[in-house]
Structure formats: C-alpha cells, structure tokens
C-alpha cells in the first residue's frame, strides 16, 4: 500500500511541467497604494492628513464621466473624526461612538486608474470633507484593504494626536 502511494505521489509531482511558472501569492492589497500599505511612516502621515478615517463595507461602485469613482459604503467603525459634521444618520448609538449600524455614506475617488473595489469587502477609508453637500466625502488616498497591521498603525497615529 505504501509503495502504491509513493508511486502515485511521484506521478503527481511530475504532472507539473518544468516550463510552467509558479503562481505568485495573492496579497489582498490595492495596486495603487502598496507603498502606503507597507510604509508605516507614510501611513501615519496620511492618517494625520485626513479628517475622517473609518472602516466600511462597500455596497456599490460607480464610475463617473469625469474620471471619478463613487463608492456607496456602510460605515462599521469610526477611527478618526466626528461624522455629525457631514450629517450622518445614526440608528444606534451616537456618531462619536466607535460602532455604527446602517450608516450609509458616499465616498468619491479622484483616481480611476486603480482597479475598483470588490463589493461586500471591508475597507479602510481615509477621507476629507467634500465642499458640496452632506453625506459626501473625498478620498485622500485610494482605500486600503482592512488588515490588523493597518488598523494598529492608524489607531496609534490617532491616539498620538489626542494626547
């Protein structure tokens, strides 16, 4: 039995041709902001430059005619900023608390060269207030994929400003 398993294993290992390229590991980061994702100092700087930082779930993505992309997101956790300033309707708790439920907002991106975000993914948005209207924000940089490392760096930068 062991000899048969060994022979099958040898055939299985030979099934891959020598000229086939191995697949690169897939990392869940955006191609547009890899330098921000991996550079701790740059991520802290961008966090301090933004007015509102929050994690959100992406519900819709639309491409505009003028080179913009519009995201409709549901805010899950606010890391920086008071969203009462932009008129967010909060159904549970207050806008200053860290937890939101069903607070929907629109975020506008100026760069359409980046690939669009997948729907129903959790993303970190670093934004500033848009001049016109309520419930609209503009991105400082393209959204970051939600990772524990990024959250820790952003929370440390925000706590450093508060103290």
UniProtKB/TrEMBL annotation:
The signal sequence is: 1-17
Say which domain of life the source belongs to.
Answer: Eukaryota
**UniProt KW keywords:** Signal
Q: Spell out the protein name for this chain.
A: NtA domain-containing protein
State the organism of origin.
Helicoverpa armigera (Cotton bollworm)
């Amino acid at each position: 039995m062991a000899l048969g398993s060994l022979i099958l294993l040898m055939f299985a290992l030979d099934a891959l041709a020598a000229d086939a390229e191995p697949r690169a590991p897939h990392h869940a980061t955006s191609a547009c902001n890899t330098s921000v994702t991996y550079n701790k100092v740059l991520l802290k700087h961008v966090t301090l430059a933004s007015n509102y930082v929050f994690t959100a779930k992406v519900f819709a993505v639309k491409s505009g005619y003028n080179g913009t992309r519009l995201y409709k997101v549901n805010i899950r956790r606010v890391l920086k900023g008071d969203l009462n300033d932009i008129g967010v309707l909060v159904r549970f708790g207050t806008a200053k608390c860290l937890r939101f439920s069903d607070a929907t907002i629109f975020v506008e991106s100026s760069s359409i060269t980046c690939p669009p975000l997948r729907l129903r993914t959790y993303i970190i948005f670093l934004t500033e207030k848009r001049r016109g209207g309520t419930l609209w924000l503009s991105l400082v940089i393209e959204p970051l994929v939600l990772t524990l490392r990024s959250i820790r760096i952003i929370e440390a930068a925000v706590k450093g400003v508060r103290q």
